[in-house]
Every structure is written in structure tokens, then in C-alpha cells.
Amino acid sequence: MKIVIALGGNALGNSPKEQLELVKESARPIVDLIEEGHDVIIAHGNGPQVGMINLAFEESKSVNSKIPEVPFAECNAMSQGYIGYHLQNALREEMLTRGLEKSVATVVTQVIVDKNDQAFENPTKPIGSFYSLEEARAIEAAKGYRFVEDSGRGYRRVVASPKPIDIAEISILSSLMDSGHIVIAVGGGGIPVYRDGFRLIGLDAVIDKDFASSKLAEKLDADYLIILTAVERVAINFGQENEEWLSELDIATANKYIGEGHFAPGSMLPKIEAAKEFALSKKGRKALITSLSKASEGIRGETGTVIEDK
Ligand code: ADP
Ligand code: MG
User: Fold this and answer.
1) What are the backbone dihedrals phi and psi of residue 127, each rounded to the nearest 5 degrees, phi first?
2) Mutate which of 229, 240, 289 for ligand 1 pocket (most atoms within 8 A of beta carbon)
3) How close is the Cα of 181 to the center of ligand 1, in Å?
4) Whose CA is nearest to atom 10 of ligand 1?
5) For site-directed labelling of 241, which of 28, 103, 162, 293 has its Cα 20 to 30 A away?
6) pLDDT by residue (tens digit) across 35-58?
7) Contact 73, 191 (CB under 8 A)
8) d(Cα 27, Cα 11) in Å, to the nearest integer?
9) Is the beta carbon of 231 within 6 A of some atom in ligand 1?
């Protein structure tokens, strides 16, 4: 089967040292799927990593004026390279250890969004450092950035989270996959860009990695989208006494549960929405939400939550 794997934050940790250890753990279940004969392509989140890069530039600029302004799209590109390096390093070693002669590489990926996406009218994603109200107002006036108060900790810049429309590098991703190579792509949801004639112009925005992975799976004509996260299954009444873990979810039931507010907006809801979009994009396509260590069992139907259009 052709599988897109979306790795969540718990697969990567919060610092380069932590990440280098965690990617070894993450490589095993992915290589299990490769060993079983599946064609896989790997997507991943980048919240803590892009935050670290952005913060490093912002803080160093305040002590050394020679440090240039580094836009958020460039920070995303750096995070794709740095996370890709660790992932391809760990996957290579795990494959060689098992005698699998396959190459692995990261493709820095640009994801096309609509410049007029509704999301730009109401930016929601906090990024970068915390500022006082006066500092925030001054930056707002100088650069036109938007700031919001972030849970009593100070003012923080917010950027939009537009929906992915297309993937600029899709044909090379497809060729690499068809030639039997392992590819890491659309890291952190991809670099958000919009089309202006032949030019693609980077935006200060964040594309949700669950939606970007779903778009990637759709464009590659994949059979399966596997979203690997911190929980083995999706639940209704999550965290409550009457919590119920789901092994299957059809579209109508998913919509009903979404309406009843069972899935948290910043975490599980985008996964359910992304899974739904992929399942609805063509007959037979399925999405699976499970934990990293359960990927193989999940694809054999032994655990996880499968979302499909029945
Ligand atoms: P990732 O980094 O993989 O994107 P998130 O933290 O964004 O992970 O989303 C996964 C988290 O969603 C789970 O760890 C869980 O705490 C939370 N969650 C919210 N609602 C649900 C639900 N209904 N069922 C299961 N998990 C849920
Ligand atoms: Mg998430």
C-alpha cells in the first residue's frame, strides 16, 4: 500500500538533543511498515522547532543589530531541513541495520495556499516571543503584525493558519516514491506560499500539518493516511468518566461527534477533519489515527481509529 505517515510532536521532542534520541524510536515503527513492503512517505509537525529557530533570531537581534530580520517562512524552511536531517539519519541507520537497501531524503516543500483564505482575516496561531502591551503596540504600528494576549504570559504575535491547496513539489515527491525511495516532505505543514504568475511568494503563516499531510496523501493517490500521535485511539467524552475509545468512525458519525464538541480544536479536531477530507477524496481511501508504537498493529486492523466513508 501507498502510505502517508504524519508524525506528531511527541515523535520529535523539544530540543536537538532530545530529538536525536526520539527519532530513533520513531524510525522503528516506520521501518516496520517499509519492511512489510509498503511505500511510505513521511510528514511531520514542527511547532517547538520552528519556535526555537524564530526565538533564537528574535532574541539575538536584540543584542546584535547585525543579525538580520528572518521571516517566518524562512524559519519554517530551516526547521524542515533540521528535522529532516535527524529523521533521514535515523531512518537510514534503522534500514541498513535490517538489511534494507533503500535511500531516504528530505524535500524542502512549498505548500500553496489562497492569499484570500478566510484564515488571514482572523489569525489564531501564536508564534515567537512574549512582549509587553507597549512593545506589542509599537511592533503592530511599525510592521502591521497582529498581537494577542496569550494566557496571562504577555502579548504574542499571531499568524493565520490557511488551508493547503496544492503542493509545489508534488511531482518529484511522486517520482521518488515510485522509484522506491523513502521521502520526508511537507514538514511543519510545508512553507506557506501563494502564486503570483510564475512566482511563489512565502507567507508568515502556519499550515496545519494534519491538513498538509491529508493533501499530500490525496495528491499522491495514497491508500492510507496514518496520523501518529500521543493517543492509541480517538475517544468521545475524552478524559471524562464515560470516555469511550473508538475503533471505527464513519463520516456521518464523525460529523455528529464534531457537532457535539468531542474533539479539542487545537489538537484532535484538525486530525479528524484531515482524516475525513482524505477519506472523502476518493472511494476506498482510509485514514488511521493511532500512536507511534502501534502503527503496524493499526494497519493490520488491531488497534487505532479508522476513519472511512462507508
Ligand atoms: P500532535 O503533536 O500529534 O499533533 P496534539 O497534541 O496536537 O498532537 O493532538 C493529540 C492530542 O489530542 C492527544 O494527546 C489528546 O490529549 C488530545 N485529544 C483531544 N481530544 C481528544 C479525543 N477526543 N480523543 C483523543 N485525544 C484527544
Ligand atoms: Mg497537533
Assistant:
1) -135, 160
2) 229
3) 31
4) 267
5) 293
6) 999 999 999 999 999 999 999 998
7) yes
8) 9
9) yes
What is the pLDDT at residue 105?
97
Rounded Cα distance between 244 and 220, Å, is: 33
Q: What stretches in the chain show pLDDT beneath 50?
A: none
The pLDDT of residue 151 is 80
Q: Is the minimum distance from the CB of 89 to ligand 1 under 6 angstroms? A: no
Residue 157 is placed in which grid cell? 504575535
Closest ligand to 268 CA?
1
Please count the other Cβ atoms lying within 10 Å of the Cβ belonging to residue 257: 18
Q: Which atom of ligand 1 sits closest to the CA of residue 210?
A: 4
Mean pLDDT of the chain: 95
CA of residue 151 to ligand 2 center, whole Å: 19
Task: Please state the pTM of the whole predicted model.
Answer: 0.95
Q: Give yes or no for a contact between 33 and 3, defined as CB atoms under 8 angstroms apart.
A: yes
Asked if residue 154 has its Cβ within 6 Å of ligand 1, the reply is: no
Distance CA 263, CA 247 (A): 15
Q: Give the span between the Cα atoms of 261 and 135, in whole angstroms.
A: 37
Eight-class DSSP state of 136: H
Over residues 162-177, the pLDDT tens digits come to 999 999 999 999 999 9
Nearest to 275 by CA among 251, 307, 229: 307
211 Cβ inside 6 Å of ligand 1: no
Q: What's the grid cell of residue 30? A: 516506520
